[in-house]
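User: structure tokens for this one?
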Amino acid sequence: MSDNRLKVNLQMGILKPVHEVFEAIVDSEKMIKYFTSKSTGRIECGKTLKWEWKDFDAEHEIKVIKVEKNKLVSFKWDGSGIECTVIISLESKEANNTLVKITEEEWTPDFEGAKSCMGQVEGWTHFLCCLKAYLEYGVN
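Assistant:
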């Protein structure tokens, strides 16, 4: 990433073991219970998937770059209108505590870039809050 480009960088702790958090992210049947309305499959390296959100009348294609079990998921998509790279990393803090970090990059350092970047901050914050509610409290 260039020094003058914008990126999303956020994190949240989830009180579940890392393998449960990882599965909730990569398993499409779990993801549709808290984030997407529909997904065309499990997140696996090299796959291209389509995610749909009926409540937003939106759909996006993701191109999975890398998956490391219980550690990392990375993909490219155009969720903000331009192709960006998303990295979701997992870090086991204790037996039942996982730190989830998300980065998405990169946008131009101007008004449109900042607007797109902030929209993605909102979206990934929503993702993390919904993931936490789903895993910790069973909220669907």
